[in-house]
Amino acid sequence: QVQLVEAGGGLVQPGGSLRLSCTGSGFAIRFFPMGWYRQAPGKEREFVASVTRDGSTNYADSVKVRVTISRDNAKNTVYLEMNSLKPEDTAVYYCRCLEVWGQGTLVTVSS
Fold first, then answer.
1. pLDDT per residue over 30-84, tens digit each?
2. Contact, 2 vs 20, CB < 8 A?
3. How far, in Å, are 22, 69, 73, 85 from residue 4 at the CA level?
4. How do 105-109 and 57-59 pair as beta strands?
5. Residue 74, SS3?
6. Torsions phi, psi for 88 (to 5 deg)
7. Left (φ > 0), alpha (ψ -120 to 50) or beta: where does 98 sit?
8. Count of Cβ atoms closer than 10 Å to residue 93 Cβ
9. Could you tell me the end-to-end alpha-carbon distance of the chain, in angstroms, rounded to an integer?
10. Three-state DSSP class for 87?
């Protein structure tokens, strides 16, 4: 069964950091581009970051500089390192590979 499972979300204070992970099962992520998206309460799901098969990255302007996407093909996992978090980063973060989506992990930035 093809599946993506996110982990690493939680409650963090403004200015803090989190590292999200997304592990694939049933397929090898090394053959595919991978992406992170997020959906804040009452808003549409939006693109956050992506990484190609060869490691090239792309970021939304809203998170550029504060976020790093990376992949470890040996672990079949993609990461999203987030720093200097702001309350407006609060959202459910989803991992995506083509048409496959994870279940999401909640990130809450609040004091």
1. 999 999 999 999 999 999 999 999 999 999 999 999 999 999 999 999 999 999 9
2. no
3. 6, 16, 14, 24
4. unpaired
5. helix
6. -75, -5
7. left
8. 23
9. 39
10. helix
